[in-house]
UniProtKB/TrEMBL annotation:
GO terms for cellular component: mitochondrion; nucleus. The record marks 130 as: Transition state stabilizer. This is DNA repair nuclease/redox regulator APEX1. It comes from Pardalotus punctatus. Keywords: Cytoplasm, DNA damage, DNA repair, DNA-binding, Endonuclease, Hydrolase, Lyase, Magnesium, Manganese, Metal-binding, Mitochondrion, Nuclease, Nucleus.
């Protein structure tokens, strides 16, 4: 699928894979020779993100400059001539919301990081943000109001991101689209019934809207409990 899609940049989340363990078939992906991986320090099989690029970035950084969160390997950022591309895996609030407070601290630190980038040049954030922003973004909103990914606090965090000058590209283009989900639990045949959540986003600086051509949810692509999304920009 990656070869058919032929992206200029491929962002991967929850890789659960240290740099030394990246499979050789990924290392050898045609057209994506520049590869950058972040993984959790001392926690194999936890978290992790990757960013693979067709052309070499001007610069690559890891983390968001916050010691509480950077050891988890959740963010890698590549600078290109016209924009920053950020691959991010936002923490889950956890069963019973046991990790909600650390998640909210991450949200605040991450927003500050994105604003610092945006002050330099436009930003494209791609990732599993672990939140369904509005009721339209999950199948059963009423039953999930107190569950991770749909608490008022997490949703407010995403609203603050939008209020800081960023745009949810898919919802900007398709404000009324229903059943547009990117995650389905493996339980109960949820994917076949499209009982899902939209947790994966391409968020961009407002001044990139003129360059936004489309944002597609590739819901037929199998291989994970999430599906890929594709952001198409003319930059």
């Amino acid at each position: 699928w990656v070869q058919e899609e032929a992206p200029d940049v491929l962002c991967l989340q929850e890789t659960k894979c240290g740099v030394s363990a990246v499979p050789p078939e990924i290392r050898a992906l045609p057209g994506l020779p520049h590869q950058f991986w972040a993984s959790a320090e001392g926690r194999p099989g936890y978290s992790g993100v990757g960013l693979l690029a067709k052309t070499e970035p001007l610069n690559v950084t890891y983390g968001i400059g916050d010691p509480e969160h950077d050891a988890d390997g959740r963010v890698v950022t590549a600078e290109f001539p016209s924009l920053f591309v950020v691959s991010a895996y936002v923490p889950n609030a956890g069963r019973g919301l046991v990790r909600l407070e650390p998640r909210l601290r991450f949200d605040a630190a991450f927003l500050a990081f994105l604003r610092r980038l945006d002050a330099q040049k436009p930003v494209l954030l791609c990732g599993d943000l672990n939140v369904a922003h509005a009721e339209i973004d999950l199948c059963h909103p009423r039953a999930n109001r107190s569950n991770p990914g749909f608490t008022p606090q997490e949703r407010e965090g995403f609203t603050r991101l939008l209020g800081a000058g960023f745009v949810d590209s898919f919802r900007h283009l398709y404000p009324e689209a229903r059943g547009a989900f990117t995650f389905w639990t493996y339980l109960g045949g949820a994917r076949a019934r499209n009982v899902g959540w939209r947790l994966d986003y391409a968020v961009l600086s407002q001044r990139l809207l003129g360059s936004l051509c489309d944002c597609k949810i590739r819901s037929t692509v199998a291989g994970s409990d999430h599906c890929p999304i594709t952001a198409l920009l003319a930059v």
